[in-house]
């Protein structure tokens, strides 16, 4: 064994304590560190010939790299839809690395059983029945890809084609219908060989809504003249957190033949609150479902789940036939359910957080985030020089400059907010208008944080309008 490696092994408790102390200092200081860092990375250094050991590596990281990391785990990072990591989830994530389980099968470990229990808890959380099988994946993109891969296999079943064996070319053109699909849907269709151009936009409800017009969807399905199709519904769009009427869409199956995939990446967590659960009414009618966990469940990156009613088709797509791995059985190993063979135990941080805080604790996070988002929306709507571009339906505030919201001006506002170090929001375009999004999904965010964000946005807006005119 290399002498440096041997020395690190002999000092492992001391080294882990040093890493623990450094991590604790970083996490407890999140509220005060800059939320975003725009000053660029440090210069590169050559790969060392002789290693410096774990302690030396920690020192090098602390001195050269740590200061440039964003405060994305903190309470005022409102870009994208980014959760933090609850204390219990962090503890679970550390143990995930320490145990280093490969959750491809359950021949030698109870880790797969823990993942199945966690999936059962999540099914219960979202109001899904036991007929839904699931698995952990890296994020919403892979979750959507898995769901649409199973949908593709279902299309083959309807048309007498075994796509997994014969290839997607044997299937012919596929029709995928959606109102406001997330960009990962088009990416998944590209990966699956279906093609981005097969994604057909269906008209939305009037009034600037992002929810699909169910009557227009029915007409689009009618125009297929009986050909089976895939419908992608949304439970929480990225910009305005709009929800398709899942129950009404599912009812169309009485007249039309389609697979219903629901992208509930973060909106699915509305199910935790009696006040908002109606938004996901009908989720239990879906054939496949995507839910991200490193968003509103507040577990570390990367973690998401996928659910489907047709595990048999899922196995047909993803099975890995090998003598040393074994064939899928009645309870197939996870390596037969996702693109990965080797799999990190992503379930453990989620298990820790669910066990530690339960349904009530995670419901409180959801409801507090929604309350804070609505409060910020009300204040921004009254602020000089700003306007909302969509109502605050759940946890995202979509706003822009009241005058001349050009791409350049809105981007300049976003940069000014980030440079302040007080907050971070991300740009978007909604109904042709350039805007900014403030997405609340972090467990640490408080009313005081929201006030700091408001002050930062208002100050940056005043500076922008003063510098270049209204």
Automatic annotation (TrEMBL):
Transport recorded as keyword: no
Annotated keywords: Decarboxylase, Lyase, Pyridoxal phosphate
SUPFAM superfamilies linked: PLP-dependent transferases
Cofactor: pyridoxal 5'-phosphate
Pfam family, any one: Pyridoxal_deC
Domain of life: Bacteria
Keyword match Lyase: yes
Family: Belongs to the group II decarboxylase family.
Protein name: Pyridoxal-dependent decarboxylase
Organism: Streptomyces gottesmaniae
